[in-house]
What we know:
By secondary structure, the protein is of the alpha/beta class. It has one domain: 3-Layer(aba) Sandwich (Rossmann fold).
Amino acid sequence: MTVAVYPGSFDPVTLGHMDIIERTASMMDRVVVGVLQNSSKTPLFSVEERVKMLEKVTSHLDNVEIRAFNGLLVDFVHDCHANVIVRGLRAITDFEYELQMAHTNRVMAPDIDTIFLTTNLNYSYVSSTIVKEIASFDGNLEAFLYPDIAKMVKQKSQSQRKNG
Ligand code: PNS
């Protein structure tokens, strides 16, 4: 049985992430989407909110499970009884960081392999960071996010502007 972990911040989940999740789910027996809790970045959404958003958009995929994690990714992968880490590559600029992470993880856990999926060209320019910037200027998010997620990002961004 091949179990893959697809880790990330998912702040928020984009159509680009969903493309990777759906394609991974069609190749693997089981996929655990790992949502990083202790990121050095300050997220727009709490880890509970990010998990809920992912559960909503993956509810049609029977072999996908969403879990939050803390600490080292390789420890989480072992905890999930998985043997593969999946990461999406949008452009060559992603590659250096991803390669460094993959090598580091393999040194720490030689039993785990990292595989890369090239992101669908339609979403190769989409990032959560850019989506949050567009939302902060009240721009249209429908090309990048599912409508429900876009609504939540708009609301959160508006309430942050009001309070901050
Ligand atoms: O969506 P992101 O922010 O690009 O995801 C980065 C993530 C979560 C994959 C990475 O930061 C990570 O694995 N963090 C856990 C800590 C860890 O294991 N660090 C060592 C690996 S280099």
